[in-house]
Amino acid sequence: QVQLVESGGGSVQAGVSLRLSCAASGRTLDTLGMGWFRQAPGKEREFVAAFIGSGSGTEYADSVKGRFTISRDNARNTVYLQMNSLKSEDTAVYYCSARAYVGARVRGEYDYWGQGTQVTVSS
Question: For each of the chain's 123 residues, which pLDDT tens digit applies?
Fold first, then answer.
């Protein structure tokens, strides 16, 4: 089984940056299709960012494009979400997730989920 553990969330002022981490276990990162989602209060979970296929190609939600960057360190089996220029509307629980097959659709179903880490942005 795959386990995903997020960390790095916190309460910050608008305009600052945070970097979230997601440590994976059970399988090596390069066999998984990694992504990030978030869920704000009163809203459904939404897609944030993901890797496409087995390479370094990425896809982002329009709301975070240009501000957020997904990256990975295969040696550490860790994926990151660098969040810059944070806005109050970025406040949410952020979830690391993975597709069991790296070639699965980025906007499709994900198979593994972390516990989530809270990000609160005050303006």
Answer: 899 999 999 999 999 999 999 999 999 999 999 999 999 999 999 999 999 998 889 999 999 999 999 999 999 999 999 999 999 999 999 999 999 999 999 999 999 999 999 999 999
Report phi then psi at 107, rounded to 5.
-95, 10
> What is the distance between the alpha carbons of residues 100 and 84, in angstroms, rounded to a whole number?
29
What's the token pair of residue 14?
A: 């608008």
* Residue type, position 110, single letter: Y
Q: What pairing do the DSSP bridges indicate for beta strands 46-51 and 18-25?
A: unpaired
Q: Which of 8, 30, 32 is nearest to 80 (CA)?
A: 8
Residue type at 94 in one-letter notation: Y
Residue 48, beta-bridge partner list: none
Residues 88, 106: Cα–Cα separation, whole Å: 26
CB contact at 8 A, 74 and 1: no
- Report the C-alpha gap between 101 and 87 in whole angstroms: 33
